[in-house]
Specification:
76 residues, mainly alpha, 3 helices
């Protein structure tokens, strides 16, 4: 049971850190409109909680992207 909670907490932290730059970009772009800010906060919380179980897939995609960039530098 502790393993499941640990998995979900790590997923919460990872997805929050991954989505933070895009959330900030949208929030700063529409800083004068309160409705946009509230919608951004609510939608980002929903997306974060939706992606928590799938954080390992997001991590694998980030690692694959890193290797893809590394491979591209080798073939230049």
């Amino acid at each position: 049971m502790i393993g499941v909670f640990t998995y979900l907490i790590v997923g919460l932290l990872y997805t929050t850190l991954r989505l933070y730059p895009s959330i900030c970009k949208v929030a700063y772009k529409n800083v004068d409109d309160v409705v946009w800010l509230i919608a951004t906060i609510v939608i980002s919380i929903v997306v974060i909680f939706f992606l928590i179980p799938f954080w390992i897939i997001l991590l694998a995609l980030d690692i694959a992207k890193l290797f893809y960039k590394w491979r591209g530098k080798l073939h230049e």
